[in-house]
Write a structure and sequence with these properties.
heterodimer; A: about 80 residues; alpha+beta; Alpha-Beta Plaits; four-stranded antiparallel β-sheet; about 25% helix; about 40% strand; B: alpha/beta; Rossmann fold; about 15% strand
Chain lengths: ~80, ~425
């Protein structure tokens, strides 16, 4: 089992959707929200996903497919 | 008692032992070094600093290392150049250039942060260091690792320009070209850092690495005769440099090395990648990530880790932020070179371009003691100015031809 941490951004039209709930049902991963800021027009969330590495990667693709932007928790590390 | 008290979460304040960790286990906020300032205050003094080595390591009391076995002992203490010509051009009485184009060993301010990062990494028992970089950081990590005899991995996007790859290969690190875009490299490196026991300088060693930037503030103050400038103009990529200069100035005040911090901190970005400056100008306390498109590649971080903190520091200091076009970047490089004889890389052009704008807007005034931070050497980004500097005069090998070209008569000119 692996745990990886991500920073998820929600576009305005996705803010009301229960995307994290859906991901927990569609993939064999445990979702754990640690910090978030959701406003009327923008939202982000720091999220931990626990599971097999391949399943986590599938879950990340799933979040992206739903219209969110996924970055590592460190944001940009290429300097 | 150690001068390092703990790593502390910048969001929730939870403390951790000073190991190779960078994210708070509680809230996932970033960690930074917390010091025993009372302990440091009892030993530090202007005199002690002035008698220290001719490098940034004269400020070792305020850097997060425990040993005196330093990797990169010659980094820092770069010239603070009194820029009389550029100052006159802009109408500023007292303008200075903090000239990091001559930093040792790889000609950029990254030598400071990497020196701290590798010294700390070795203290923590690491034998392998790594970084993800497209330029200055990779150069510096590879060079320092070679000198220290440490194993080194440098991750780069597979489409990076050949000249930049060469600049790393010469030090013989393991250069890994990742077949993917910038985001793919980013994600992979985060995962490798989580899985392998390496010192990834700007990931799990980041709390220590970032502290090296404070030395730019310390040196500026000392070189100004132990006073803080009125204005600082600082280029922003991740935003870390700006926040650490602000932190460094306040540490000096807290330790009684200066009486006051009167500095307005100003951030500079290129328009093609200006998430922080755009948020500042819009009055927002958060930034919107962007896809970078600018010649200022060393500042091209679209989702900056310290963007929020840079916004906060600038607001606290009552400073400003602005951005310049690529054309203005080139003009800035040329202006600095032609007035002060300093050839800066594109980030320097951003700094000078924004300096010009802030002066024009009246935000930097004639009497303000102003310091512009020039963070890297122009020889690294010659492609940015190759079409903007004209061509040499081409002549036949005869004195007549030479004199004709420059409209000189025999025995005229008087410039021998």
């Amino acid at each position: 089992m692996t745990s990886l941490r991500f920073h998820i951004r929600f576009p305005e039209n996705k803010i009301k959707e229960p995307i994290i709930y859906q991901i927990g049902h569609e993939f064999r991963v445990v979702t754990n929200v640690r910090r978030a800021d959701v406003r009327e027009t923008t939202g982000w969330m720091d999220l931990e996903l626990t599971g097999e590495t391949e399943e986590i990667e599938r879950a990340i693709d799933g979040i992206r497919t739903k219209g969110c932007v996924v970055d590592p928790i460190e944001l940009n590390v290429v300097e | 008692m150690s001068k390092m008290k703990a790593l502390v979460c910048r969001e929730c304040g939870k403390e951790y032992p000073p190991k190779a960790i960078h994210v708070c286990e509680m809230c996932f906020g970033p960690l930074e070094v917390k010091y025993n300032y009372d302990e440091i205050k009892s030993t530090i003094s202007r005199k002690k600093i002035e008698q220290g080595p001719n490098s940034m390591w004269r400020y070792i009391d305020l850097l997060p290392v425990e040993s005196t076995s330093i990797i990169g002992p010659h980094a820092g203490l770069t010239p603070l150049v009194r820029a009389k010509n550029l100052g006159a051009h802009l109408g500023i009485d007292e303008l200075y250039i903090k000239n990091e184009t001559v930093n040792h060993p790889t000609l950029s301010f990254k030598d400071r942060v990497v020196s701290v990062a590798l010294t700390r990494a070795r203290e923590l028992g690491f034998e392998t260091v790594a970084c993800a970089s497209t330029g200055n950081l990779a150069n510096s990590v590879a060079a320092h690792a070679a000198a220290a005899g440490m194993k080194c991995y440098v991750f780069i996007p597979a489409d990076l320009e050949a000249a930049k790859v060469l600049g790393n290969l010469i030090y013989k690190p393991n250069v890994v070209e990742v077949e993917g875009n910038y985001d793919d490299v980013n994600r992979l490196c985060s995962e490798i850092a989580a899985e392998h026991g390496w010192a990834f300088v700007n990931i799990n060693i980041r709390p220590y690495y970032a502290e090296g930037s404070k030395t730019l503030a310390f040196e500026t103050v000392e070189q100004l005769g132990w006073r803080t400038p009125d204005q600082a103009v600082i280029p922003m990529a991740s935003g870390s440099l700006l926040t650490k200069i602000w932190k460094g100035l306040h540490e000096m005040k807290a330790l009684g090395l200066v009486d006051e911090v009167r500095t307005k901190i100003n951030g500079a970005q290129a328009e093609g990648c200006s998430p922080i400056a755009t948020a500042f100008k819009a009055g927002r306390d958060f930034f919107k990530p962007v896809k970078p498109k600018t010649i200022a590649k060393s500042l091209a971080i679209g989702n900056p880790a310290d963007g929020y903190y840079a916004l906060k520091a600038t607001a606290e200091s009552k400073g400003a932020m602005d951005a310049v076009t690529d054309e203005e970047v080139v003009e800035g490089i040329k202006l600095l070179a032609q007035t002060e004889g300093i050839f800066a890389e594109t980030a320097g052009g951003v700094t000078i371009g924004v300096l010009c704008k802030l002066v024009k807007q009246g935000l930097i005034k004639k009497n303000d003691v102003t310091v512009a931070y020039i963070t890297g050497n122009g020889l690294k980004t010659q492609e940015a100015v190759v079409d903007a500097v004209g061509r040499p005069f081409r002549i036949q090998p005869s004195l007549v031809n030479f004199q004709k070209t420059f409209n000189m008569g025999k025995n005229s000119g008087g410039e021998s």
